[in-house]
Design goal:
The chain has helices spanning 2-21, 23-47, 55-71, 73-93, 99-111, 113-117, 119-123, 128-156, 171-192, 201-229, 244-264, and strands at residues 160-162, 166-170. The protein is mainly alpha-helical and 268 residues long. The protein has one domain. Helix 8 (128-156) runs antiparallel to helix 9 (171-192) and helix 8 (128-156) crosses helix 11 (244-264).
Length: 268
């Protein structure tokens, strides 16, 4: 437990620093996180005798940053579409093309580099303070949701939520996670108003609720993959937390929610 808490605190401090300094530091860290997470997922699938296509997936993880820098948000579309086409083309040329290999390849593509790319335009929203706060909101919704769900589930969780996927998750923990995500989003909005003009509070409450659900679905999706592959964790680089993918599994779905909100409101 103590190891888990220490790792979480240090990771949060590092995250705040990376968002604060912005620029190339943030860009490179996100690209590295995407590449490492792709590696962990492909390695897990290989254990289950599933062979995702590697070149297009790793290629997107490497090209996501230059594509965005050259084309902006449009680069997200082009590089992801090209990678998806390349995956299906390479699968079709295999001697033994299998639907499972194609599905796993697209799962990695849509579950790691594509949503993480969305953080690039969010951080670049003007004014810079608003962009930084909205980027931080992604992590607040996901990580506070994880934290509240864990402690509420351990304390009072009795009703299993999805025992076939994740036996330890409970409905009580899920509700606690939603409360944590919503509370964190609301407090970030209130605190952010001392720095920059913020969108309405109800926007953040709604983002906390919808993002909280998305984050928990992301966590369940990763658990489903690990159960299918017979793996406890995707990796070991974070003591008490597993691998990179174990740390971002709930974040990636929240990226879709925040990016969609920013598109709908004209922020990006």
């Amino acid at each position: 437990m103590m190891q888990r808490i220490i790792t979480g605190v240090l990771s949060a401090a590092l995250l705040i620093f990376i968002i604060y300094v912005r620029g190339v530091v943030f860009d490179v860290v996100i690209a590295l996180a995407a590449f490492l997470s792709c590696y962990e997922m492909i390695k897990a699938f290989n254990k289950a005798n599933v062979k995702p296509v590697m070149v297009p997936v790793y290629g997107m993880a490497l090209l996501m940053l230059p594509a965005f820098l050259l084309l902006g948000a449009l680069g997200i579309f082009f590089v992801s579409a090209f990678a998806a086409f390349a995956i299906m083309f390479q699968i079709a040329l295999r001697k033994d093309p299998r639907w499972m290999d194609a599905a796993a390849s697209l799962n990695v593509l849509l579950g790691v580099p594509l949503p993480l790319m969305m953080l690039y335009p969010i951080l670049r929203i003007d004014p810079p303070e608003l962009g930084a706060l909205l980027t931080f909101l992604v992590f607040v919704i996901a990580l506070l949701g994880d934290t509240f769900a864990y402690f509420v589930g351990v304390s009072i969780g009795k009703h299993k939520m999805a025992p076939a996927i994740s036996p330890k998750k409970t409905w009580e923990g899920a509700i606690g996670g939603l409360l944590g995500s919503t509370l964190g989003a609301a407090l970030l909005c209130i605190g952010g108003r001392t720095i920059v003009t913020m969108p309405p509070l109800w926007h953040f409450i709604l983002l906390g609720l919808v993002g909280g659900v998305a984050g928990q679905l992301g966590d369940l999706s990763a658990s489903l993959i690990k159960r299918f592959c017979g793996a406890k964790d995707f990796g070991t680089i974070f003591p008490g937390h597993g691998g990179m993918m174990d740390r971002i599994d709930s974040i990636i779905f929240v990226c879709y929610v925040l990016f969609g909100y920013c598109l709908a409101t004209g922020l990006v």
